[in-house]
Amino acid sequence: MIDQDPIGRTPRSNPATYTKVFDPIRALFAALPDARARGWTKSRFSFNVAADRGGGRCEECQGAGLKTIEMQFLSNVQVRCEACNGRRFNAETLELHYRGKTIADVLSMSVGPATRFFRNHRKIHRILATLERVGLDYVHLGQPSTTLSGGEAQRIKLASELHKRATGKTLYVLDEPTTGLHMADVARLLGALDELIATGNTVVMIEHDVDVIKCADHIVDLGPEGGVGGGRLVGSGTPEQLAGCQTPTGQLLRDVLRRERSLDGTLDGTLDGTLATGAAVTAEGAGTYDFRPPKRRRRTGSSGKEIELLGVRTHNLRGVDLRLPHGKMTVITGPSGSGKSSLAFDTLF
After folding, report:
1. How confident is the model at residue 78 (pLDDT cuts 50, 70, 90)?
2. How far apart, in whole angstroms, are the C-alpha atoms of residue 154 and residue 74?
3. Sign (positive/negative) of CA torsion 211, 214, 217, 218?
4. Which of 20, 58, 26 is closest to 43 using CA atoms?
5. Are 96 and 35 in contact (CB under 8 A)?
């Protein structure tokens, strides 16, 4: 299950440690001639290892880069450590440089530049490239997890799965992965999910974004309302099949699929007096914006295997029967309180 819970609850947790890319980076610094001459191991470059155990962290802040000041009547305040100036390591550790950068400099790099910086190191580059593919090129490697949004945390978890060796036997259950994403980032996210499906895995997600719904192989539409008025299966099938249903999802898909056919794959033109999705927009001083929305995916072939759920009565679900295809992307949608989480997390997971 890949949800929007934080990847850590303290400033010590960050994208570099969660994805484990910091391990090979520390090993790279430990392999430097100066580090070997001093007898340093990769523990020296961890901000979690104390000096008496071979670490090189700043002991004033214990590698946090911040110090907590307890207030008597107000919430505690965190300020930058004056000893290391927020760099987490002691001065001796920061004497070593790899291609002109210290270990603290690497943690301060954002994912995009770091991916190019480590392009010649296969393992490091592979992990960073997956973070970039899910649209996190702007996040800093050492950014405290407490400052990440729920959507960013979820995409870091997704990237951690993408760089693993593919098994083709994994079921991924996601909770609204497009939360907070720009339309262009949604397209990148769909590309990342396609990578999981291409290796034989199965993806099931709760989602309302129309660009995701229209690209699904299979849709489960719950409703018709929320709470006691929900919990029923009001439609299931491909986007084209759901477009024939008289539900809010069906009506939305009908309009979207009709619009795509009318555009006939072109990137310019207008529809109903408004700028068509995907048209090139130029603003003075802003360059040209050329966004191609994700197209309806048509995957061929199937294992023929399905996940079968019969008579589901979790929470407000009212004896729901459904089948979810393996090796495909299924979207569960419907009004708030219609039973989506009850089906995806409390039943399927």
Report:
1. confident
2. 32
3. positive
4. 26
5. yes
Query: What is the mean predicted confidence (pLDDT) over 17-27?
Result: 96
CA pair distance 208, 227, nearest whole angstrom: 18
Task: Say if strands 287-289 and 66-69 run parallel, antiparallel, or are unpaired.
Answer: unpaired
Q: Count the alpha carbons within 13 Å of 344 in the hemisphere toward its beta carbon.
A: 28
Tell me which of 292 and 135 has the higher pLDDT.
135
Q: How many Cα atoms within 13 Å fall on the side-chain side of residue 185?
A: 16
Cβ-Cβ contacts under 8 Å for 203 (sequence gap 6 or more): 172, 174, 193, 196, 197, 328, 329, 330
- CA-closest candidate to residue 177, choices 198, 192, 195: 192
Please report the sign of the dihedral spanned by the C-alpha atoms of residue 264, residue 298, residue 154, residue 108: negative
Query: Residue 47: which of 82, 90, 109, 9 has the closest Cα?
Result: 90
Q: Which two tokens stand for residue 345?
A: 């997390």
